[in-house]
């Protein structure tokens, strides 16, 4: 080996040593970021340093994971992941089901679904999977009917009956809490509801039940599935301690899925 190659080799070895036992995980701040912060000291005792990177949207956590800037993320359900990868195949796979954040319908103008006026404007997420989820929620609330069998592929164009003549405003999920001042009601993901002080149990005029299939998962890329530190993270996130913390912190607003 040439003498000049030795410093470079030593630098590479030091870099590998420094990153060993470190997990970089992307998350939305609430509840995922808070849950990750809770398990961080548990992992530290097992020799794993957890680095939490928070995002305010649903796109960049997957992009960062696919590009290798993250080792895992926690913010999405499988239907969203599947739709996302139809246009951006990043080889991301679910690792473990963690919690259900029930989707809710919120309003500053009415306190019951039946009070929505004819022609009311309802804001819903504009991404395909959460948009479909919102429409399915409105169908369960008795406000609309959808084409038979559309399920998680539902779009506004699939509405076959709209008894109140509702009008729909499709917005980025992160913008929905702010839209409450301008619309009659909005369907808001729990993480964004919690961030602005909404309590899904108390404030939602209608919301999903515990049987919803839209459970948020810990996800990674296929090449990282064998990472033993990732297995430790999955175990910590689904431990009795994590379950007790979720129930104490959020009550029925966030439901453990393990």
Question: Can you characterise this structure?
Answer:
By secondary structure, the protein is an alpha/beta fold. It is 37% helix and 24% strand. The chain has ten helices and 13 strands. The strands form three sheets. A six-stranded mixed β-sheet has the order 2-1-3-12-4-13, with helices on both faces. The protein has a five-stranded mixed β-sheet with strand order 9-6-10-5-11. A two-stranded antiparallel ribbon has the order 7-8. Helix 2 packs across helix 9. The N terminus is likely disordered.
Radius of gyration: 21 Å
What's the arrangement of strands in the largest beta sheet? 2-1-3-12-4-13
Q: What structural class results from the helix and strand content?
A: alpha/beta
Q: Helix share of residues?
A: 25-40%
User: How would you sum up the major sheet?
Assistant: 6 strands, mixed
Tell me the number of strands. Answer: 13
Low-confidence stretches: 1-18
How far is it from the N-terminal to the C-terminal residue, by CA? 53 Å
Determine the number of helices (DSSP H or I, runs of at least 4 residues). 10
Q: What is the N-to-C order of secondary-structure elements (H for helix, E for strand)?
A: HEHEHEHEEEHEEEHEHHEEHHE
- Into which percentage range does the β-strand content fall? 15-25%
Estimate the global geometry from the Cα principal axes.
globular
Mean of pLDDT: 93
